[in-house]
Amino acid sequence: MAVATQREYGLFINGALADPSGGEIRELTEPATGEPLARAALAGEADVDRAVEAARGALEGAWAKTPATERSRLLHALADALHANRKKLAELEARNVGKAISSVKAELAQGVENFRFFASAVGTIAGRSNAIGGSLHFYSLKEPVGVAAQIVPWNYPLMMTTWKLAPALAAGCTVVLKPDPATPLTALRLAELAGEVGVPEGVVNVVPGDGPTTGAYLVRHPGVDKVSFTGSTQTGGEIMRLCSEPIKRVTLELGGKSPNIVFADADFADAIPSAVWSIYYSAGQSCEARSRVLVERSVYDEFVGGFTEAARRLKVGDPLDAETQMGSLISHAHRDKVHRFVELGREEGADVALGGEPADGAGAFYPPTVLTGVDSRMLVAQEEIFGPVVTVIPFDDEKDAARIANDVKYGLYATVWTGDPARGHRLARRITAGTIGINMPYTAFPGIPFGGYKQSGFGRELGIETLDLYLETKSVVHSTSPKPFNPFSL
Ligand code: NAD
Under a CB-based contact definition with an 8 Å cutoff, are residues 82 and 108 in contact? Predict the structure, then answer.
């Protein structure tokens, strides 16, 4: 296979595009049209070996010799390169994922800022010293954890790649990143850009491949020190198991079934469009999609009417049209899965107030769907559907809202809409989720830690806390007297 031609994508190993050792290629089609998009290489075990070897070589070689200030400069340069290439990258991502280009542009802009945030954060990496006393002199060092395996899903291929790469590189780690085999294109381009701005070869390697084979091999690889995984809760459990032997550092960003809680005193002019955005953004294929709308019973009918009408007016269609608000789903197979959930909802007794049938045509489109008459214990209110399907549930008071909000195995995000800020803050304490938005639908900002409680995982992305997850702390103790002093000796 000739790599780097217009519609063919290789692997990215040791600073260069590479052919897969097994010669395996996957034909990618555009989910919104069914048209061919690209031919993308799939990495096998020998490719993972090469990538890990390159990452280890860079960790102990060029990257170890790169001063922190230079790492920071390179992250800024990568932010600049991402910004300069935003048009082509956005189009590639929109065509590969089927996602509305306006959404992709916002994700890309956030990715640029994420590199800038961690470029600045390099300056915060510092050990400490304390007055242990006597003849002992102590200080601690912060050192990179080592080679990081990073596994990203298909729903935000480029943005998730920036979330993972920026803190790892800031900490001085090197990376072998495995995108989902369906959506490897923008991560590969980003790796190329890293090389172009001067990130030494071997620091960033990208090996698209199937999860249970290539992904599991990468996670188990003895040359990998840390695994950062984003994906489903089920796969997260498997990753954790794989990381137990030999013991590896692991962080997991997993699924969600997040609530959007609307009180009677909320400003519906904000709450309705925001609640619509919070579920139908990215066609509901978001970990933090607010897929359960909990509405105070006294305003249930009014809110549901307004919400359903706003959802009906969403512009669904061509991902490349700047006016489109919702594109297609990732594949027909995924659309079938989403539709089975809607059928299950019907069987469980829910009413379909909007949508509920796959669209005709070649693209994997599914309309904005609203399920009402839902009880919190129904499977459609418990399981992550990962599509444009919202379940609407009434509640009686604040206590009841918190009970229903917490009545799932996940805990990634929650939004509260209320005219009473004190109530918003009371609920922020009661709800078991990693982030709470009060009258605020947007979820991800560089600098604000993002991650899960309960089965939504552990570890954080985006925040300064993330840097620590790529660092080890080493303590150095020096006795300045010829006879080592032990304050605890009897
Ligand atoms: P998935 O778990 O099937 O796959 C995610 C990634 O893991 C892919 O790259 C896949 O190839 C790889 N993988 C699969 N099995 C593996 C194995 N045994 N070993 C190693 N790698 C393996 O998830 P998905 O369906 O692609 O993504 C959707 C899920 O991701 C949803 O549950 C969503 O909520 C979650 N998600 C979470 C966040 C977050 O930050 N919490 C963000 C985005 C998506």
Answer: yes
Q: Is the CB of 171 under 6 A from ligand 1?
A: no
What order do you get walking across the sheet with 369-372 strand by strand? 351-354, 369-372, 389-395, 292-296, 259-262, 413-417, 435-438
CATH of 8-254+456-474, one of 1.10.3470.10, 3.30.70.120, 3.30.420.10, 3.40.605.10: 3.40.605.10
**CB of 151 shorter than 6 A to ligand 1:** yes
Ligand 1 contact, 163 CB (< 6 A): no
CA angle 413, 75, 201 (to 5 degrees): 115
CA distance 191 to 470: 19
C-alpha 306/C-alpha 202 separation (Å) is 53
| Cα separation, 266 vs 440, whole angstroms | 12
- Closest atom of ligand 1 to 235 CA is 2
Is-catalytic flag, 243? Answer: no
pLDDT tens-place string over residues 89-145: 999 999 999 999 999 999 999 999 999 999 999 999 999 998 777 788 899 999 999
Over residues 252-279, mean pLDDT: 98
CATH 3.40.309.10 fits 259-438, yes or no: yes
